[in-house]
Amino acid sequence: xxxxxxxxxxxxxxxxxNIYKDxxxxxxxxxxxxxxxxxxxxxxxxxxxFSSTLITKSSESIFSVIEKEYKISIFKDTAYSYSIxxxxxxxxxxxFQLQSELKINNDINTIFKKYSDENIDKITxxxxxLNETKEILTKTIESILARGxxxxxxxxNSEELKKTSKMFYRNAKKMNSCCNVS
Length: 182
Hints:
The structure is a single chain. By secondary structure, the chain is α+β, with helices and mostly antiparallel strands. The chain has two domains: about 15-120, Beta-Lactamase (2-Layer Sandwich); about 120-175. Helices cover about 55% and strands about 20% of the residues. The protein has a five-stranded antiparallel sheet with strand order 2-1-5-4-3, with helices on both faces. Strand 4 (about 70-75) and strand 5 (about 80-85) form a beta hairpin.
């Protein structure tokens, strides 16, 4: 018996942080290494353009837009606007932490490095460890079930051998009784 369970492995990826003042880009940090070398420049420009468009055209102060496998989170306050572009698996609670930290500390390079680490979110790390433990337990249960099937087959074979040996004993006794000379 084979047990198939698929676990979602969360891989958080932070692509870009943009900081705007008066709807103009003043600082940004990107990691586009996930894309091909020749695509990076145009993807970076598109991310800046899309973020800028969302910030200037929307009246909402906090919102997210999901497009395919990307999430663009926009945060506006009285002085600055922030655009954070991640993959869709990046947890919202971490995005809010990142945005809160940006408001306090504008050292975008340090913050970008910190939040690019998949281990920044303790809940995600715990979920990842739990998924690994579940996978190990599933494999253990599969091997126990396989052993159980082998034991059942062994018991069945031993019962068959017992019947065959009894038949052999009876047949041998019959054969020997006719040739018994006293």
